[in-house]
Amino acid sequence: MWLTRPFCFLTITLREEGVYHLESVDLQQQIMTIIDELGKASAKAQNLSAPITSASRMQSNRHVVYILKDSSGRPAGKGAIIGFIKVGYKKLFVLDDREAHNEVEPLCILDFYIHESVQRHGHGRELFQYMLQKERVEPHQLAIDRPSQKLLKFLNKHYNLETTVPQVNNFVIFEGFFAHQHPPARKLPPKRAEGDIKPYSSSDREFLKVAVEPPWPLNRAPRRATPPAHPPPRSSSLGNSPERGPLRPFVPEQELLRSLRLCPPHPTARLLLAADPGGSPAQRRRTSSLPRSEESRY
Ligand SMILES: CC(=O)SCCNC(=O)CCNC(=O)[C@H](O)C(C)(C)COP(=O)(O)OP(=O)(O)OC[C@H]1O[C@@H](n2cnc3c(N)ncnc32)[C@H](O)[C@@H]1OP(=O)(O)O
C-alpha cells in the first residue's frame, strides 16, 4: 500500500556518545518517555508480562530504535507516533541445515510494533524497509527474536520469507541466512549440549519466562527443545489477551511531541536522526567497548 501522508522516521540509540550531549535535556527526556510508552504498548500487544523495550535498557546497550511518525496527524499538526522497530547485533550460535553450530553476529529484530488502529495499512512495511535501508541488510540476513504469528505472516507476505532453519534457541532465521554472512559464519565443532550455547544465544525475551511461568503444578508441561518452524503465538504461553476496544492514542502527544518535529531536521534533532548519528552500522558495531556477550540484552 502506498502511503500518502507525510511520514518521517526517527532513529534513536541512547548509548551513542552524541546523544548524551544533546543541547536539550528536555528533548532527551521526552524521547525516553516515548520509548517507554512504545515499549509498554508493544508488550501489551504481544501479551508480554513486561516491556522488552525501555529507555533505561537502551542506555545499557547499542540497540537502535526506528520510530515512524505521521507528521500530518492531529492534534494541530503535531503528529502521531505510529510504531517502532528495535534492532541490534547479537552474537548467536545458530544451526545450519546440517545441524552444525555456527557463530554469527547478525542484525536481530528485537521488538516491532505498529499501533493497533493502523495495523495492516502498510506502515509496518514502510518502517521495516527504512530500517533495512539504514542498516544495509537484506531480510534473509536477519535473525528474529521469537517472532509473533503476525510478524511471521508479515515477513512471508512482504519478503517471501517462509522456510525457517530450525534452531534450539528462540531466534528464527530463514533459508538464505548462511549465504550472506559477512564475515563468513565460523564453523564450530559439531553439535554441543544446548546448555553450552545458551549464554550467547539468549533472547531479549528470556527474562520474561521467569515472570510468566505458572506455579507448580501448572508448570509441568514438557519443554520443546526445538521451536517449531512457526512458533506458537505468544498467547499460547501467556494466555489470551482480554478483548479490548480501540485504544486511545498511546502517547500523550501534546506533551511528548512538542520537541519532536524532526522533519525536516533541526539542529537539536540532528544527532538523533538516521543521518548517521554514530557512523555507519559497521562503525557502530566496532565502537563497542564491552565484549558482546557481556552487554545487557535489553
Ligand atoms: C521480534 C518481534 O518483534 S515479534 C513481535 C511483532 N509485533 C507484534 O506482533 C505486535 C502486533 N503487531 C503489529 O504491531 C503489526 O501487525 C506488525 C508490526 C507485525 C506489522 O505491521 P503492519 O503495519 O500491520 O504491517 P503491514 O500493514 O505493512 O503488512 C500487513 C501484513 O502483515 C501481516 N499482519 C499484520 N497484522 C496481522 C494480523 N492481525 N493477522 C495476520 N497477519 C497480520 C499480514 O501479512 C498482513 O498482510 P494482509 O493484511 O494482506 O494479511
Describe the structure.
Residues 1-178 form the N-acetyltransferase domain. It is found in: Cytoplasm; Membrane, Clathrin-coated pit; Cell junction, Focal adhesion; Cell projection, Axon. One of its GO terms (molecular function) is tubulin N-acetyltransferase activity. It holds the Pfam family Acetyltransf_16. This protein is α+β, with helices and mostly antiparallel strands and 298 residues long. It has a domain at 2-187: 3-Layer(aba) Sandwich (Aminopeptidase). It has helices at 25-45, 55-58, 123-135, 149-159, 194-201, 206-212, 235-238, 253-256, 267-270, 281-286; strands spanning 7-12, 64-70, 80-89, 92-95, 101-104, 107-114, 143-145, 164-165, 171-174, 186-187. It has a seven-stranded mixed sheet, sandwiched between helices. Strands 4-5-10 form a three-stranded antiparallel sheet. The chain is globular and about 50 Å long. The structure holds acetyl coenzyme *A. Acetyl coenzyme *A binds at residues 45-46, 109, 111-114, 119-125, 144-145, 147-148, 150-151, 153-154, 157.
Topology:
Layout: E1 7-12, H1 25-45, H2 55-58, E2 64-70, E3 80-89, E4 92-95, E5 101-104, E6 107-114, H3 123-135, E7 143-145, H4 149-159, E8 164-165, E9 171-174, E10 186-187, H5 194-201, H6 206-212, H7 235-238, H8 253-256, H9 267-270, H10 281-286
Parallel strand pairs: 6-7
Antiparallel strand pairs: 1-2, 2-3, 3-6, 4-5, 5-10, 7-9, 8-9
Bound molecules: acetyl coenzyme *A (ACO).
